[in-house]
Amino acid sequence: MPRRDDINRILLIGSGPIVIGQACEFDYSGTQGAKALKGLGYDIVLVNSNPATIMTDPDLVRRTYIEPLDIESLTSIIERERPDALLPTLGGQTALNLALEAHERGVLSRHGVELIGAQVDAIRRAEDRLLFKEAMSAAGLECPRSGYARTLEDARAIVDMTGYPVILRPSFTMGGTGGSVVTRPEELASRVEWALQNSPTHEVLVEESVIGWKEYELEVIRDRADNFIVVCSIENVDPMGVHTGDSITVAPAMTLTDREYQRLRDAARVVMHEIGVETGGSNVQFAVNPADGRMLVIEMNPRVSRSSALASKATGYPIAKIAAKLAVGFTLDELTNDITGTSAAFEPTIDYVVVKWPRFAFEKFPGSDPTLGTQMKSVGEVMSIGRTFPEALQKAARSLETGKTGLDSLVHRVDYWALAEEKRPRDLQFEAPPAVQPRASRPPPAGSDLARVLEKLIAVPTADRLFHVGDALRAGLTVERVHQRTGIDPWFLHQIARIVTQESVIAAAPELTADLLRESKRLGFGDAQLAELRGVTEAEIRDLRERAGVRPVFGRVDTCAAEFVARTPYLYSTYETESESEVTLRRKVIILGGGPNRIGQGIEFDYCCCHAVFALRELGIETVMINCNPETVSTDYDTSDRLYFEPLTLEDVLAVCREEAAQGELLGVIVQFGGQTPLKLAVPLERNGVRLLGTTADAIDRAEDRARFDALLQKLGLRRPRAGIAHHGEDAVRIAKEIGLPVLVRPSYVLGGRAMMICWTEDELEAYVGLAIEAAREERGSPSLLIDEFLKNAIEVDVDCVADGRRVVIGGVMQHVEAAGIHSGDSTSVLPPYSLDSEVVAEIEEQARLLALELGVIGLMNVQFAVKDRQVYVIEVNPRASRTVPFVAKATGRPLAKIAAKVMVGRTLDDLDLKDGPIPMHVSIKESVFPFSKFPGVDTLLGPEMRSTGEVMGVATAMSLAFAKSTSAAGMVLPDRGRVFLSVRDEDKPAVCHVARRLRNIGFDIVATDGTARVIAKARIPVERLNKVAEGSPHAVDAINAGRIQVVINTTHGAQAIRDSYSIRRHALLARIPYFTTVEAALAVTDALEARHLLGDRSVAVRSVQEWHARTGR
Amino acid sequence: MSNEPRRAYLALADGTVFSGTAWGAAGSVTGEVVFTTGMTGYQEVLTDPSYFGQLVTMTTPHIGNTGINGRDPESLDSRPRVSGFIVRDPSPVASNWRTVEDLDPYLARHGVVGIGGVDTRRLTRHLRDHGAQNGCIGTEAPDSLVDRARAAPSMAGLDLVAQVSPKSRYAFTESREDWAVPFGGDRPFLASGRATGARFHVVALDFGAKRHILRCLVDAGCRVTGVPASTTAEEILALAPDGIFLSNGPGDPAAVTYAISTIRGLLGKRPIFGICLGHQLLALALGAQTFKLKFGHRGLNQPVQDLVSRRVEITLQNHGFVVDVASLAGRAHSTHLHLNDGTSEGLAIPDARAFSVQYHPEAAAGPHDALYLFERFTAAMTEAA
Asked: Which residue in A71, A177, A964, B62 has its CB near the most CB atoms, within 10 A?
């Protein structure tokens, strides 16, 4: 059955902002799907609220809507575009839920839109755990014993049947939000409550625990002719009990006989049939009892997922692309495997091992529970490819960029004493996080102490557990004992033991012979790791290795274990005897990607890297991508001309440079587009003779090195806040006194405001300095601290521009809604500025130009300014791609990253005929999205340390309407009526009266805590007084929980006040009530509510980015 | 592994040498070097009589992870049939609840010469580009191994069936149930092709039959009598079978002339079902031709299209020779084709109630997509009765 001709216009839904559980993988699948369907001649309309995606590029499809992913916007889009079909399976749970809602509300039937790629009944059967269980049972498959609870009483009755421990799984949530494991009766009540709160349907599955069982996942595809294939099997190293997204996983499955594997395959096929997935990709998860092989079906997703992205990258089989084609009528036998040219109706087989290792960000959320469980907590992941498991495992460990060179010992890096003594905070604790204490220094445990400490530690899954396992084996624990404590299969543990054994061989060898080097390399040892074991420098190891002729070769990811010739250069390094890189004779550029997603560095940089590829391809230059993040578009074999799936370390990058330089002309390497990861490699690469394109490493250093930067500003006559550099604690206090409190303290060379803080008092400063110095040491080895005057109530401004060394084009000037002091990645940005006069804006642009020219920027540059009393201060300059580049591109229609890439290979802005564009005739707002709900115990207040995972964009003709859109896109549903709760710090009290009056005018009731209420009442605005929590019930949290509050506005300052109001913010978050923690945001939302009230209409005016851009003219 | 690993080599007849470390049985061995791409099922590969005399490389790097268990061997006597085993990374440990023995001692005990640490990807690419060829594994000097590889007899024209076929008639009664895991998850698999009671007597011409094929026949309702390859048509008919099964087996089908004439004598007299070598022999009995593929089809991800239903089956395959589809013309319908290279995967002679497939519907190791063929066979016997 070939292409359907009865449909023409297809609507695709994206997955919205990056959040824990839904990241770049859906940009990858959405982009693949859109490209595939466009290629088949369909007219594609696409909606996604996330501007940092490749899929929302205006060139990709005909109509792109960057609008909130809610039913109102979707309805407006459908009414406007009248699509024939809706494909909801490429946009994660968000798209699936939205499509389901559209179906239920009759929006689809009313407008004759056919749901393709998934049937409503199938989605329901897969998502509703009770229906799922019934379907499995009817098909003769077992699920864990369980029951469905809507109340605590229900849950108790179910537990009577299953016994403890039980797992709680709330319905219709992603990434396991709200889920937990309950091992004791006294924990049940609080955790059931938490789970019910998190489920949109207020239902939770209470399930027999299979913690410790082996966990597997099959990525499968079915077509309408009932052809069925398994694309990839995945085995979790961490057994059941840890969310798959947080588990270290391996492909293919390692510890199954064929007999057992085929049982999983048979079961997966039955699951697809029984659930009714007629076409498309799905995944099915299984638990297998290691003692007797008993197999249980855990769950399935009737859509592409994070694991299917992983499976696609792991095998080379593009699941999303194939799924999109199947959705429009094709069957598998009619499609071709791009890599080999043979049929797509086959099962990939691989002759290497793939390891996925999640990346966490617990350091951003002090006070949160670092224990891994059924609720996903990781923010990103890396994938690595090696010929053996130890090789892939160690490559993954060094890809993580958490300071590891491989499966390193942590004995001298972490405080094992403290870790072992640490009490795990409970999920439901509404106390404020304790003040952070600097680490105590005591000698690390050794000998039997170490073994005892580790034996305790490894029983609890945490982010670093596998490193602890390595240390446990080093400390003399047996594989058998480690297996008992962790449940990790002995096969994996024996492989880790091989690494540990090899370490002692390496350390003890009289010299590193070629054989020993090769043997170690084949177990994945990196140069830096060898250097550490031998007590020499990495450069010395590299020299030695080069002299010994021990060099990696490059194998191809070919879907077929070499049975057929692979046409696509999708490569990985390994230590074998034959290279398959087939380097070309072309002119080429290597682009370094961003590595794993983390807070502060994510999809925005992948967007920039992809754009560099697109730009250079337009110029006929071959593009070579190096990256290790399997979620991304940049690691699609289809994106660049050549893809190296490799760690972004000096060793691995140099190896690729060497390989690619062997033939053709390597013009250079682009390090400025992938965020801090490649930037950190700039100087070392240059020292090793690699040519960098664009802005020089020296210019980057000049912008980052405080003394040189000061000199630069002085030369240009630009102003910045008073500042100093401290190298130790007393220094810091002295400098702070000179500058005057409050001060902003941050380590030099950090990412995402790590360990950055505003200190208002000397005590705060002293407490924090120790920690900040530690963070600086981790990142860079140089513990210097930057101390800046903090400009209170200043307006922050971001500028992105492109320069060619002679001329500068301003891409966009963005004004932050929140006052200076909130990390730019967390603040709400408005383009164009909404309250700065044109003179100030012109001054800002002029200063940006001066800086770019003086630094000799060739490519992108971002500058952050603060404006106070019309005086412009330079906060920082980053001569590289910034997080806001994609937002600026979507807001203005100007693809800054592409332009910059062309400039970097020698085109001038004149060549490209570029001038400053007209100011857009619309307002674009970027708003951040936070993972607070995943981290119980963490405060939601914003500060100078970045904590958002993603962003959304709202576009409208007015600021207020754009803000309404961005707020709903960020997941806050603004009410039309009800009660607004106000509790603000003293300095915000004048403004809050204003807010209260305006909100009352449009029909809201005002409630406030005592101090705030008094000020409001004095302004003769009727207000209801509510107790603070400390004042006793009935208090603000009671009112929130009772559903009496519809909006929370809470600003606070000072440690005590923050602790007192913590539970209000936390409960507002859990109750999904829109909450605002700065007075600026409160004013903005007041504007938004007013505007909506004036329009008196809930329907949303939607417009595609193509139309917005055309309106302005480029 | 306390002993210092001993260097070993795999030498190919074209002079290419791969180095590794000795593993399994000591000594040296020659045979045709082939690769198989299955990521699971090395125990089934080791014991599959169709691999008789071959030096097999698994493209998947980690081998031995699940050790050896008592239930998965494919040979009737449970012993390995391959001559040599070439892998990238022999597992230091076996981890599976059914494991009874580690792979290394098992190979040593059964005299299978192994070599580990080989760049099996390069080997596979070499065989793909230059064709399957003879090779020799040993610890001697590489040059002498090359000479021995060159001196080994070519697979073409070689009758290996005589060496793996049973010497005498036997009854086979084992069911898949005997092999099943006693827990949830088997029902979907066991449900298909399951019949109650033995309704048919099937004589299986055993050219080196895989045990699981016979189990599938039993489960389809057959009383199975295995007979040596040299059994004549008259002797077979004298056993009063309801149907004849032609098994898989090793080597060049054209060399098994005696079986071809036996099949000719049976054709039309009873329903016939052939698998793999059985498929090739049936085609040869019809007067069609077979030829040798460059490097064969070996793996459990091979896509086959049923030309009637258009459905695709993912199949286990293990063959170096193949039926020339064009040569079937007029003699039989081509029923299945390989989706990748369009080679013959199935034929049928409706008038004679005979059909055969090149691939392995019984799987083991491999996907269970084609078990329906056993029911097709019993249906043919029902019609014939």
From this structure: A964
